[in-house]
Amino acid sequence: MNQQLLANFNKAFESKARLSIMSVLMVNDSLSFNAFKELLGLTDGNLATHLRALEEAGFVSVQKQFIGRKPNTTYSATDTGRQAFTEHLNALEAFIRGI
Amino acid sequence: MNQQLLANFNKAFESKARLSIMSVLMVNDSLSFNAFKELLGLTDGNLATHLRALEEAGFVSVQKQFIGRKPNTTYSATDTGRQAFTEHLNALEAFIRGI
């Protein structure tokens, strides 16, 4: 049964928003909150919730700086995050192939 | 950006349980509640909630019969469900390939 193929399915990445956030961070070293907002078309609250959950899971790290006097928050995937996301995608891929 | 590839991502199928339920119904004409329970290792309440949500979305149909005097509830994928699930898997596949 295909469920074994989903052993590495990671609930932290299941939503469209989380898949999108992680895929962006796989190919960009870091991205600002506003760039994410624009790219994903999410509300501030929704985006912040997803980013915080990924941060709490240890999959995303947050950098807070100032550009001049303006605060600028950027996000990066951690090594753990990259590995877990890759495993999640591999699980999905194997699952889809198995159907 | 890969998000466009997720245009057909369907929230109704995002969880591991829903992916598993639908994949089973893609290859089985119908399955009983108890067979699902055994196969997926979900609690009655959890399984019932997922099946009801898929039924309410029009993706799963329910057949209630009696075997002798015992009630037997079975579930099938509807044509709409098969199509929507296929589109969801295609979206995931394209998304994964795009990363």
TrEMBL record, chains A, B:
InterPro entries: ArsR-like_HTH (IPR011991), WH-like_DNA-bd_sf (IPR036388), WH_DNA-bd_dom (IPR027395), WH_DNA-bd_sf (IPR036390). One of its GO terms (biological process) is regulation of DNA-templated transcription. It comes from the Bacteria. Pfam families: HTH_34. One of its GO terms (molecular function) is DNA binding. Keywords: DNA-binding. CDD domains: HTH_ARSR. Residues 18-96 form the Winged helix DNA-binding domain. This is Winged helix DNA-binding protein. It comes from Spirosoma oryzae.
